[in-house]
Every structure is written in C-alpha cells, then in structure tokens.
Amino acid sequence: MTAAALVDFLRRELAPTPGRGSATFRLTLACVIATIPILTHRIPHALVVMIVMYLVTQEDTAATLVGSVLGAIGVTVGLGAALLVWMVALDIAWLRIVCFVGFLFVGLFLKRVLVIGALGSAIGVPASLAMILPDVGPLPPESLVEFLLWLWLCVTLGLAVNLGVQLLLAHGEPLTLLQRELDTRLRLVENALREVSGARNVAPAPSAMSLDAFATAGMTRPLALLKTALLTNARARQRHEALATAITLVDRLVTDASALRLLVSSTPSAPVTESFVRVADACARTRQALERERSQTEAPAPSIPADLSAAAPRPLVDMERTLEQLSIVTRIESTNPTTKEPGRHLLLPDATTNPEYVQFAIKGALAALICYVLFVGFDYPGIYTSVITCFVVSLSTIGSSNQKGVLRFGGAAVGGVMGLVALVYAFPNVDGLGGFWLVFATGTAVAAWINFGSPRISYGGYQTGLAFYKAILQDLGPAVSATVVRDRLIGVAFGLTVFGLVEHLLWPVRAADRMHARLADVFRALAALARVASRPLDDQGDVDARRRLISQQVTDVQGFIESSKFEPGAGAADAQAVERLTADAQAVFLVLLAIARDAASAARRPDALRAATTRVDQDVAVILEGLAHRIGPGGVASASEVSGSLAAFERSIAAAHADAAGEQATGEGPLGLYRELAVAVSRLAESGGRAIPTAARSIVAG
Fold first, then answer.
1. Which pLDDT value is given to residue 445?
2. Quick check: helix, strand or coil at residue 229?
3. Distance of alpha carbon 54 from alpha carbon 59, whole angstroms
4. What mean pLDDT is predicted for residues 644-669?
5. 191 and 202 in contact (C-beta within 8 Å)?
6. Which of 54, 451, 480, 583 has fewest C-beta within 10 Å?
7. What is the DSSP letter of 207?
8. 582/627 Cα distance (integer angstroms)
9. How far is Cα 679 from Cα 667, in angstroms, rounded to an integer?
10. Mean pLDDT on 290-295
11. Which residues contact 616 (CB under 8 A, 6 or more apart)?
C-alpha cells in the first residue's frame, strides 16, 4: 500500500459517522467515572478496568448487556479454574506448563465452537495467564491469590460502570440498527444511480459515509448486528435466512453501484440513462418494501425494472438481477409469516465433527507455548504480552489473522506514542486531578473514536487504548518510565512473528481457499434439503436441523469473503463472484424452506402432483451438486453437465405446471413456490457461468 493510499484509507475510516461521536462520549465518560473508585480506594490494576470497557461496548445496548454478563461469567470461571489448579500445581513448574497449554487449548477451542466465541476468550485468557503469572512477577502464594482476586474485582468494576453508562445514555436495538444499515445502503445506491443518470435534487442519504466507504467496509457490521439480534430478538430468529440473504444482496448492490460510477461516462446515452432511472426506482420500491417488513405489515413485492438493453453496463445488469432476488426474499417472507423456530444452541452444529477446530486450537496453543518458553528462557518477562498476542490473533484463516495482527501492532504503536507524549510533555506540566483527567480523557477519546470505526479499523482503537493506559496507569500516580511501552511493542511483534510462522507451517488455512470449499458445502447441503423438500416429514426437526447447518455454512462463507481481502494474491473479482453465488444460493435456500414448510402443513395432494414435485426436487439437487463439484477443490463437473441438469429441471417444472394447472388456478400454494424456485435456480445457474435457456424464461413467466 502506498503512502497516498494509506492516507486516503485513514481519512475515510476516521471520518465522522452517525452515532460515532455519542458512542465515543459514552465510553470516555465511563472510563473517567471508573477512575473515581480507582483513585479513592487505591484499586490496583486500573488498566484492566479500562480495557474491558472497550471489549464489551457496542452501539446497541443488547450487545453490551450480553457481552457484560458473559464477560463476568467467563472471567469468573477462568480465574476460579486457575485458583483450583494453583492448589496443586503452583510449585510444580512442569505441571503449570501443562495446565497453561490445556487452558489455552480449551479457550481457543471454545472460541471456535461456541456460538458466542468471545466467551471462550473470557475463559481461556485469564486462566492461561494465571499459569504464567509466577514467572512474570515472582510473588509469594498469598500475593498471587490476592492478585487474581483484585483482577476479578477490576473486571467486574469495569463491566458494571460501563454497563450503567451505556444503559442510561445509549439507545439502539440491534434489529432496528441492522434495518437502518440496509436502508442507508439502498438509499446511497439509489442516489448514485440518479446522479449518474444526470438527475438533480437528489435527496441526501442519512449517513456521513459514502458509497465507496460502505463498499470497502463490506458485510462485517451488518452481519455482527444480525448475530446480536439473533440472541435478543425473536422476530430476527424467525427471519434469520431472509435477513442474511438481504445483507448479501444489498452488499452486492453497493459493490455494483460503486463499480458503475467508475465505468459510466459523464454523458451516458438516453436508453442507458432511462435504465439507470428504472433501476433507481426499483431500489426505492425495494427500500419501501423492506420498511413495511420492519413494521410487520403486509409488504407487497417491489416491481422489478424491465430487461435492460444489451448496451447497459454489466454492473447495471447485475443490479437488476439482484433486485429481483430481493423481491423473492420479500415474497417468500410474506407467504410464510410464521415459522417453527428451533431452540437456541450453545455450540455450532459441527462442533464435535469438524477437525479444523482442534487444529486451530493446537496452532494457537503451540505458538503461545513457544513464546512462553522463550521469554522465560531469555529472562525477559516484560514481553509476556506475546502470549496474549498468539491467543488474540489466532483466527480461522490467514487473512483474518493478518488483519488483526496489523491492527494490533499498529494500535499498540499509536497508543505507545500517545503514552510517551503524555509522560514527557503533558504530566510534567499539569497539576492536580483535573489535569490528570484532561490528559486521560483526551487519550481515551482518541482511542474510542478509532474503536467505533468500521470493523476494518475498530480493533486498532482497542489496542490504542490498551497501550495508552499501560503507559500512564503503571501505578496509582502518574507513570515515570517508558520501558513498559517498549516491552509491549516488542512483545506484540514477537508474538505476531511466532504465530505467523506456526500458522504458515502447520495446517495453513487461506480464506480464499476455504471460501470456495465452504460454498461447495452450502450447495451440497442445499441439495440434500432439496431431495426432501416436498415430502411431508413427520419430524419437522429434520428441516430445522438442515436449516441451522446451512445458515451456519452461509455465515462462514460471508466471513471468508471479508477475510480473503487481507490475503496477498486474493482477487477482488473472485470474492465478488463468490458473493454473487452466495446470494443466489441464499435465495434458493429461502424457497426450499418455504416448500418444505408448505409440504409439512398442506393436506394430502394428488399422486400426480406429488410425483411431479418430487422430480423437480431431484433435478434441483442434481444442479446443486454439479455446482458444488465445479466450485469445490478439483472442480470436476463441466458446464455442459450443469446445463443438462438445468434442462431436465425445466422439463420437470413444466410437468409440475401441467399437473397442477387444474388444482392451482390462482397460482398460489406449491405452484407459486415452484415458480419462485425456477427463478432462483435459474439465477444461480447463470451466476455460476451458465446461460439460462429460453425455455426457462417461458416457464417462469407462465
């Protein structure tokens, strides 16, 4: 990255955004309030009080509440387990090392298999650090126990103060914030299309972020809001698949609109200008339809613009198809307003069967053990933060680990510089508590502003605050030594180096490769669902189990798309193609779920209609399996095989249409759902590189 590109990135990421200033104020206020009991009662380890606030504070109060409760539980369990182990292993070095590795392994494993992975970190980090504490700061047993008890008190104090401030001053329910995010993106896309078409008096979008900024940020924030909404909102759980599909589709619209502005000349032709206006109008109708969904009123499907001319730019054509997929999401949701929702689960569906989770835990534990042995062997306990670095940057792929590693070191460097400035220039020239609060609040505000940026930079804000507090809160008074800043930077760099070597040598996982493999898994799981979609199952739990598996797989693909952007050699075009396929696969998923639920609740159908729909299910499964073979490792299926399967699917749809003509004259019920399936499968095949035969369009239109 060039210097100009870096400056442009920082300018874009540090620009004001809606809610960022108020969130920064709340976090700064909470940190300042926490210094009152710290200074009054001379509570040690004030650094811990501050950093837990950064870890749990979110824009929506539900996420903050859940994070605070789970953080308190996790730290209590972790420190309690460490105290129990100390009763046996405190004076036995080799046993402490074994327990250290064991706690790391368990924490990393839970970090991957728990639905709320942060709970694994809350358990593993305190427990493993307690095992190395006798080597970092040699203390008598009584002082070590007192240290852990103070540590627990500091965590609880930080969580309690922060939660009180957030609940009093913050507002924002995750589902509402998610729908606001989607609305803002659609409005920006609409405005971009109208601006390109030459329209005047374009209504401004309610956001300080530009379309390019949203294109850069990707789906990370909406997906995080969806994850929180699933924990706290029953309606979000009922509409999980539809919301996840809408997130992917809206992100495609943002990407296409951003590319369109670069491709289109300043004076497009009249036919193309009319196409821009039609697609912009469709964006407005789609936004209104999603708004009606939010108010839980009947939401008619938005009308889709006519087929675009051959002269239309490719991104505009893709936007038209994406809007059609969004209309499918709306229609399917209005067809099935209530669904049977499975109970909540603590673990991921493949927690006990996927070997990657064990491999992931082994890599992180091995890297941390290497750092531990080396800093003890070289008698340099000041770089113990290298152990924490190995745990923190240990993520599922190389791309995501690279991203977090860069933010960790960059944030530590910025915070260290801020701390040095405070130590050398600020504190010697201020006097009293007011001067201390002024310096403290200024540094906190800078770190909090970064922390509430997009997911591409927010972790750097936490690291900035951590390094800043580590410099100025070394004791109950102002710090006088900068050694701790130096040791922290060395420890972070050392931990990143060791973990990077282990990650590349032992079971390396590239996000780009895993992205394709997991998308192939999605197609195979969809094929399995398609084979049983029209069969009225006695056990509806089978459909729910398949639903949970596919939803988790789609979530993994979306995460890999974002992580692949931080890997060298990963092409943006490849990520966009996978995102397009994922969105089309989600549309097929929604229709198959609707068919499965309709079959479970419908009365007995004629044998001819049941046989016809079964043939359609089988043909859909064959198409999906063919796509899985093409996308997965090896790519053995040819395009002609998939095209042949698509032709067989068209014939089956036509037969089902004929058999149901007398039964479903109005187009409702299974016939209407299979028409939607024809649209969704045809779009999926086209996104995979196959053209839709003319017959398919006539079937869908019929």
1. 94
2. helix
3. 12
4. 54
5. yes
6. 480
7. -
8. 12
9. 15
10. 62
11. 534, 649, 652, 653, 656, 674, 677
Residues with Cβ within 8 Å of residue 82, at least 6 apart in sequence: 103, 126, 127, 130, 131, 148
pLDDT for 289 beyond 90: no
- pTM of the entire predicted model: 0.70
Do 426 and 414 meet the contact criterion of CB atoms below 8 Å apart? no
Is residue 366 a contact partner of residue 390, using CB atoms and an 8 Å limit?
A: no
Helix extents (H) in 378-457: 385-392, 398-421, 432-451
The answer to whether the CB of 459 falls within 8 A of the CB of 407 is: yes
Confidence of residue 556 (pLDDT cuts 50, 70, 90): confident
Pick the more confident residue, 342 or 611.
Answer: 611
Dist CA 663 CA 609 (whole Å): 9
Ordered alpha helix ranges (H), 506-606: 511-531, 541-563, 572-601
Report the alpha-carbon distance of residue 226 to residue 220 in Å, rounded.
Answer: 10
At 114, phi and psi to the nearest 5? -75, 145
Chain centre to alpha carbon of residue 95: 38
| Alpha helices in 59-140, H assignment, sequence order | 61-89, 93-113, 118-136
In this structure, what DSSP letter does residue 604 have?
P
pLDDT tens, 123-138? 988 999 999 988 887 7
When mean pLDDT is compared across 105-119, 291-305, 306-320, 665-679, the lowest value belongs to: 291-305
Contact 250, 182 (CB under 8 A): yes
Residue 481 identity: S
Compute CA 340 distance to the chain's CA centroid, rounded to the nearest angstrom. Answer: 25
- Looking at residue 691, the DSSP 8-state letter turns out to be P
Rounded Cα distance, 301 and 332, in Å: 9
The residue with tokens 């912009």 is 280
Inter-CA distances, 291 with 60, 188, 286, 294, 651, Å: 20, 16, 9, 5, 38
Maximum CA extent, the chain: 89
- 61 has pLDDT over 80: no
pLDDT at 651: 62
Task: Return the C-alpha torsion angle 338, 343, 346, 348, nearest 10.
Answer: -60
pLDDT in the model for residue 368: 92
Residue type, position 64, single letter:
T
What is the b/e burial string over 528-566, where b = at least 16 CB atoms within 10 angstroms of the residue's CB?
bbbbbbbebeeebeebbebbebbbbbbbbbbbbbbbbbb
Q: Which 3 state secondary structure label does DSSP give 209?
A: coil
CA-CA distance, 8 to 18, in Å (whole number)? 20
- Paired with 114 in beta bridges are 347
Provide the pLDDT for residue 286. 83
Distance CA 162, CA 518 (A): 38
Please name the residues in contact with 468: beta carbons below 8 A apart, sequence gap of 6 or more.
415, 416, 418, 419, 422, 443, 444, 447
